[in-house]
Amino acid sequence: MSSAVSARRRQGFSTPSLCIIRLVIQVFVNGAAQRFEQPLAVSTLIEKMALAGKKIAVERNGEIVPRGLHARTVIEDGDQLEIVVAVGGG
Amino acid sequence: MSDNLLIAGKTYGSRLLIGTGKYKDFAETRAAVEASGAEIVTVAIRRTNIGQNANEPSLLDALPPSKFTYLPNTAGCYNAADAVRTLRLARELLDGHDLVKLEVLGDPHTLYPNMPETLKAAGELVRDGFKVMVYCSDDPIQAQMLEAAGCVAVMPLASLIGSGMGILNPWNLQLVIDKVKVPVLVDAGVGTASDAALAMELGCDGVLMNTAVAAARNPVLMAKAMKKALEAGREAFLAGRMPKKLYSAAPSSPTEGKIAPRAA
Q1: pTM, whole model, 2 decimals?
Q2: So what's the ipTM on this one?
Q3: Residues of A in contact with B57 (CB under 8 A)
Q4: B245: annotated active-site residue
Q5: Tens-of-pLDDT digits for all 264 residues of chain B?
Q6: Residue A15: left (phi > 0), alpha (psi -120 to 50), or beta?
Q7: Which one-letter DSSP state was computed for residue B10?
Q8: Chain A residue numbers touching B22 (CB-CB < 8 A)
Q9: Do B22 and A49 touch (CB under 8 A)?
Q10: Residue B48: which of A56, A66, A67 has the nearest Cβ?
Q11: Contact at CB, B59 and A86, closer than 8 angstroms
Q12: Among A72, B182, B190, B194, who pairs with B209 as Cys (CB 3.0-4.6 Å)?
């Protein structure tokens, strides 16, 4: 169980209208917070971001996720992802 | 006579390395690179735009990695850790490509290299299997340290990145060339063709430039000029220039057989 989800469970929900607990995860992709309903594979994230087939590289929590492992690497709550491309530069 | 540039066991016909930043568009980048004859092109690694412009043109389409040797850089990195991370991402992005340009900057005002961090990153990258071409100060001792750390080329600045100020200290550059065995390339500071020619006349193995071409009024024409300047400078170096003799002026025409002066 990721820390943020368990923290939310511990806090509980004070208003009766919020009786359905949704396991939402929050991850940071290139510095921006993104929410998903459940943990997802790196390859799924890439598809959701319309980056499938693009020449990109992915780093998760400071470690490279090799292309061959995108499908089986699961992104969890609180993960920090960097997705990069090559651009013009000196 | 073949006179190729040899870097990390691979030969290149051109001694000019070109940066791909600051052009109007990818078409101009491509045209300038082609006019320069460069085989090695530097690229930067940056976060992709998320959720916008899914069909945005890509640098890799304009300059296919099958035709050019990519040299990913660490521009914008101010410490060793960021530089190492950036190049690991580059290696993943470019399918295991391991020839890289390391630069660790000291401050955004001068973009002068931070040498202790550069040396630290160089060691880490070499241990991780990278072939490191390294942007550095024009200090011969630092250059020797980078060579000892396993860098495949040292690339001292001629003057500040993007300044176009030319070679401010040819004497130091000469010392670096004399002290290290790996190729020495001038990286940064070239402003116009004569700067590039001078670097080559001093005995540099190559020149890396970006702004001098991209910021010229006509980048493609400047790229052509740079190609010729490198070739001219290299040939002048190989030919071996005449010694400079401040006080022994000697005429090039025979002193014998001159017609008699007319009697007054």
Answers
A1: 0.88
A2: 0.87
A3: none
A4: no
A5: 579 999 999 999 999 999 999 999 999 999 999 999 999 999 999 999 876 666 678 888 899 999 999 999 999 999 999 999 999 999 999 999 999 999 999 999 999 999 999 999 999 999 999 999 999 999 999 999 999 999 999 999 999 999 999 999 999 999 999 999 999 999 999 999 999 999 999 999 999 999 999 999 999 999 999 999 999 999 999 999 999 888 877 888 998 999 988 887
A6: beta
A7: E
A8: 88, 90
A9: no
A10: A56
A11: yes
A12: B190
Contact B96, B73 (CB under 8 A): no
Measured CA to CA, the distance from residue B3 to residue B6 in angstroms comes to 9
DSSP three-state, residue B238:
helix
- A84 to chain B: closest CA residue: B47
Copy the structure tokens of residue B152. 């495949």
Identify which of B167, B161, B215 has the alpha carbon closest to the alpha carbon of residue B188.
B161
3-state DSSP call for residue A39? Answer: coil
> CB B47 to CB A51 under 8 A?
no
Q: Where are the domains of chain A?
A: 21-85
Token pair, residue A18, equals 């919020």
Catalytic residue among B24, B67, B101, B224: B101
